[in-house]
Design brief:
single chain; mainly alpha
C-alpha cells in the first residue's frame, strides 16, 4: 500500500500529464493551421519540415502519455487554466 506521500506524488504526476494533454490539444490545432497556412503562402521546404516535425513530436508525446495513462480525460477546467 502506497504511503500518503506516494499517493500525492502519483496524483501530482497525473494532474501534470492531464494539463499537458489539454495544452497539447490546443497547440496541435494551432500548429496544423500554421503549417497549412505556410503551405498556401509557399514557405520554403525547410521551414515546412520544421513545423511538421514539431507537430509530429507533439503528437508522439500525446500518444505516449495516453498509452501510459489511458484513463486520463481532458476536463474543461484543465483547458481554462491555460
Amino acid at each position: 500500500m502506497p504511503s500518503a506521500y506516494e499517493a500525492w506524488e502519483v496524483n501530482q504526476e497525473r494532474a501534470l500529464k492531464q494539463r499537458f494533454l489539454a495544452a497539447a490539444r490546443e497547440k496541435i490545432t494551432w500548429l496544423e493551421k500554421e503549417v497549412a497556412r505556410a503551405r498556401v503562402m509557399g514557405l520554403d521546404a525547410e521551414s515546412l519540415r520544421e513545423g511538421e516535425e514539431k507537430l509530429r513530436r507533439l503528437r508522439e508525446a500525446v500518444d505516449q502519455i495516453r498509452a501510459e495513462y489511458p484513463d486520463l480525460t481532458i476536463s474543461p477546467e484543465a483547458t481554462e487554466r491555460q
